[in-house]
Amino acid sequence: MEENGKVLAFDIGGTKIAYGIVCRDGSLAGKVTKVSTPATQEAIYSLLKKIVSQYENEVDAVAISTAGTVDDNNIKITGSVGNLPEGYEKTDFQSLSSKRVFVVNDANAAVWAEYKVGNAKGKKNTVLLTLGTGVGVGLIVNGRLVTGKSGAAGEVHFPIRLDKKRRCGCGNYDCLEIYMSGKALNLDAKEFFKDDNATSYDVIAGVKENRLPAVEAFNHWQNMVLYGVVIFASIFDPDVILLGGSMAHFIDYERLNKEANEQIVTAPFVLKEAAFENNAGIIGAALLCMEQSS
Ligand SMILES: [Zn+2]
Questions:
Q1: Do 287 and 260 reside in the same domain of the chain?
Q2: By C-alpha distance, which of 245, 293, 279, 282 is closest to 51?
Q3: Average pLDDT over every residue of 243-252
Q4: CB atoms inside a 10 Å sphere around CB 41
Q5: CA spacing 20 to 30 A to 124: which of 32, 45, 97, 196?
Q6: Is the pLDDT score of 294 beyond 70?
Q7: How many domains does the chain have?
Q8: What per-residue confidence (pLDDT) applies to 149?
Q9: If you measure from the C-alpha of residue 53 to the centroid of ligand 1, how many angstroms do you get, rounded to a whole number?
Q10: How far is the centre of ligand 1, averaged over its atoms, from the C-alpha of 20 (Å)?
Q11: Region 269-283 average pLDDT
């Protein structure tokens, strides 16, 4: 990319839209601004358009990290947009700017940021598992982003038990996601506390004071995270597996590193927390945009 090498990057999620200007080296030029995600597709488009017109002259391109699967040419969304408003998947991102507009799935953007400038820097085989409402999976194999034929590689919607205990957001029962996500810890809280109002915050608060049943709820959830980590370690033989999302702070990395590496038959890998809690989507989308246009 010629000119100043800066990219205006957005991270669009169901709750918040964050944006900032990213430099060629992956650093942020100034602060990241966050706004609540508007309730309709039209309002989201108008907001993006307004922000783009404000900064367009300062940058060479616009990069968008978004929920949903994205086409191979990084032009548009092809499906599955989670908790964003109806019609969002039809958003015409290309009409936002006369400059290049690059669209990428948020989990893919995030793992790219970790690989280029984060806690998996230079590690050509990296898995990022972001534990949020769902589980965002970003995969780098032999230095390349793995997306699959429709951009959905790494989805954890396969059952890990067969007795139909929990319904997943996808409609199926007992997917790994509904046991390993941040949302799963909320469900564990309700089960172990026998209280429908209990949440993951009650679990974390109880764990800090070493109280039951919080410790049991947390251990149940953490064992499911371990289970997921072992699955990804076995399939991808990675150098590093990173855990992201706010709940990743509370994982016992020493214990899970040891236990996961005892369970796998491949060479050892390292389990770590991701470097970026919030800005990985913005940074990764901008870096991929620069890379693919240079
Ligand atoms: Zn599912």
A1: no
A2: 282
A3: 93
A4: 17
A5: 32
A6: no
A7: 2
A8: 84
A9: 38
A10: 32
A11: 94
